Amino acid sequence: xxxxxxxxxxxxxxxxxxxxxxxxAPEARTAEExxxxxxxxxxxxxxxxxxxxLDLAELPLGPLVTRxxxxxxxxxxxxxxxxPFRKARxxx
Length: 92
Hints:
Blueprint: H1 31-34, E1 40-41, H2 43-51, E2 64-65, H3 67-76
Protein backbone atom coordinates (compact mmCIF):
# COMPACT_ATOMS: atom_id res chain seq x y z
CA UNK A 1 0.00 0.00 0.00
CA UNK A 2 1.26 3.45 -0.94
CA UNK A 3 0.24 6.78 0.57
CA UNK A 4 -2.79 8.12 -1.29
CA UNK A 5 -4.18 4.73 -2.33
CA UNK A 6 -7.74 3.88 -1.33
CA UNK A 7 -7.89 1.26 1.39
CA UNK A 8 -11.66 0.88 1.68
CA UNK A 9 -15.04 2.41 0.86
CA UNK A 10 -17.90 2.92 3.27
CA UNK A 11 -21.38 2.60 1.78
CA UNK A 12 -24.95 2.16 2.91
CA UNK A 13 -24.89 -1.51 1.92
CA UNK A 14 -22.41 -4.05 0.53
CA UNK A 15 -23.87 -3.41 -2.93
CA UNK A 16 -23.32 0.37 -2.73
CA UNK A 17 -21.06 1.97 -5.30
CA UNK A 18 -20.06 5.47 -6.32
CA UNK A 19 -19.49 5.93 -10.07
CA UNK A 20 -17.05 8.77 -9.36
CA UNK A 21 -14.65 6.50 -7.46
CA UNK A 22 -12.54 3.55 -8.54
CA UNK A 23 -13.22 0.71 -9.16
CA UNK A 24 -16.58 1.92 -10.53
CA ALA A 25 -15.34 5.03 -12.32
CA PRO A 26 -14.22 4.73 -15.92
CA GLU A 27 -10.46 4.34 -16.12
CA ALA A 28 -8.44 7.39 -17.07
CA ARG A 29 -6.92 7.32 -20.52
CA THR A 30 -3.19 6.75 -20.64
CA ALA A 31 -0.77 9.08 -22.38
CA GLU A 32 -0.49 6.58 -25.24
CA GLU A 33 -4.27 6.62 -25.72
CA UNK A 34 -4.45 10.42 -25.89
CA UNK A 35 -1.50 10.88 -28.27
CA UNK A 36 -2.10 10.97 -32.02
CA UNK A 37 -1.48 7.66 -33.82
CA UNK A 38 2.20 7.44 -34.82
CA UNK A 39 3.46 10.15 -32.45
CA UNK A 40 6.66 9.16 -30.69
CA UNK A 41 7.44 11.60 -27.88
CA UNK A 42 9.59 11.48 -24.75
CA UNK A 43 7.96 12.10 -21.36
CA UNK A 44 9.87 15.39 -20.78
CA UNK A 45 8.90 16.60 -24.27
CA UNK A 46 5.25 15.72 -23.67
CA UNK A 47 5.22 17.55 -20.31
CA UNK A 48 6.80 20.65 -21.91
CA UNK A 49 4.28 20.56 -24.77
CA UNK A 50 1.34 20.22 -22.36
CA UNK A 51 2.70 22.95 -20.07
CA UNK A 52 2.87 25.34 -23.02
CA UNK A 53 -0.50 24.42 -24.50
CA LEU A 54 0.86 22.81 -27.68
CA ASP A 55 -1.55 20.59 -29.56
CA LEU A 56 0.07 17.14 -29.80
CA ALA A 57 -1.56 16.69 -33.20
CA GLU A 58 0.69 19.47 -34.55
CA LEU A 59 3.91 17.65 -33.63
CA PRO A 60 5.79 15.71 -36.32
CA LEU A 61 4.92 12.04 -36.76
CA GLY A 62 7.65 9.47 -37.28
CA PRO A 63 10.80 10.88 -35.66
CA LEU A 64 11.13 10.78 -31.89
CA VAL A 65 9.99 14.17 -30.57
CA THR A 66 12.43 15.33 -27.91
CA ARG A 67 12.35 18.14 -25.39
CA UNK A 68 14.67 20.15 -27.67
CA UNK A 69 12.23 19.91 -30.60
CA UNK A 70 9.35 21.03 -28.40
CA UNK A 71 11.44 23.87 -26.92
CA UNK A 72 12.17 25.11 -30.46
CA UNK A 73 8.46 25.04 -31.31
CA UNK A 74 7.63 26.92 -28.11
CA UNK A 75 10.28 29.54 -28.94
CA UNK A 76 8.73 30.03 -32.41
CA UNK A 77 5.21 30.28 -30.97
CA UNK A 78 5.37 31.72 -27.44
CA UNK A 79 2.63 30.44 -25.13
CA UNK A 80 -0.20 32.73 -24.02
CA UNK A 81 0.36 34.90 -20.98
CA UNK A 82 -1.61 32.42 -18.87
CA UNK A 83 -1.12 28.86 -20.16
CA PRO A 84 -4.14 26.56 -19.85
CA PHE A 85 -4.63 24.71 -16.57
CA ARG A 86 -3.20 21.21 -16.67
CA LYS A 87 -4.46 18.49 -14.38
CA ALA A 88 -1.75 17.04 -12.16
CA ARG A 89 -0.33 13.72 -13.30
CA UNK A 90 -1.19 12.05 -10.00
CA UNK A 91 -4.90 12.88 -10.38
CA UNK A 92 -5.07 15.65 -7.76
